[in-house]
Amino acid sequence: MNSIEKLRLDKYLWSIRLFKTRSAAATACDSGKVKYDGTAAKAAKQVHIGDEYEIKTEAKRWRIKVTGLLHNRVAFPEAIKHYIDITPEEELQRIQYQAATFHTGKRRSKIGRPTKKERRDLDDFIS
To answer: Among 1, 3, 31, 117, whose Cα sits 20 to 30 Å from the Cα of 68?
Structure first.
């Protein structure tokens, strides 16, 4: 096996742009957020074409299949050519639901402290 065919898992996840830095990818591997065949994968694990990984990031739970090895970080349109996103449909629906119920900046009623206007209205009501 040539050295060019060897690629660490953390470097691969960084190069396909799932993580912003390589150290963030390594930390995710060490904390068990990256799994291969249901078990936690270490950052130094060798990546091979055809491998399937489950990756948990802040935004999404990915399930990817490796279609090509990428040694350097490239632009997003080029990076997505090196994996197939096989994330289950229910996870994609959960993400769409979260996006639809995203915080709009307005305070949900009857939760938390009253706003300044509500406080004035309360003071006027009591006095």
So the answer is: 31
